[in-house]
Design a protein that fits this description.
About 5% of the residues lie in helices and about 35% in strands. The chain is built from one helix and twelve strands. It is mainly beta and about 210 residues long. The longest helix is centred in the first third of the chain and has 10 residues. One of its GO terms (molecular function) is endopeptidase inhibitor activity. Keywords: Signal. Pfam families: Kunitz_legume.
Amino acid sequence: MKLPLVPLLAVILSCSIGDATPLVYDTEGHELMSNSSYYILPVEEGGTGGGLKMSYEWKRCNFFVAQARGKAEDGVAVRITPPGASVYDPIFNPVAVHLSTDVTITFDVVTVCVESMYWHISDKSPLSTTSNPRQHVAVGKDEDADMPFPPSPDMLFSIERYDGAVKGYKLVSCNSTGPYENLGLHAFKGKNWLTTSASALVVVFKKGHRYA
């Protein structure tokens, strides 16, 4: 995808001025806030697809996260919630999203399911009953199941700077007791699924319009 000049500079500058203000910025150069929704898009042009979305409902109210096939597709917007965000008043008392801190990620979408569409790490694989060394990012819990509060470790993620050949951010799973694991794309059954991976998917965050 093509990034506006100002947002790209914001990403580059945020990687060069140190961690005095370790915040996460969207493609317009604004801080990510807990009361806004964002599309998670690959930073590189000419990739294999677009933004991230829910795909394959393997059980009622249970999905996996995959990449939209169309390169111009934004996918489904998410809400990113830091621990300091108000549970009871998230819209009018927002907090900024910081780097390297635990966050929960929720698809900002209305479904027939009672529970919110929280991301979490799962040992299950889409369209397969065979074991898979990769852990997939799943969405939602069993219908009518209570969501744990505070969030369980499998629901915690982190946003980190990516300072490789391209500048952007990467998503990290905080599920394990050892080193955090990058989230990347794994091609399987004609789709790119979001999984734990040695190679990180480098992303940017594009502001959604639902709460604009």
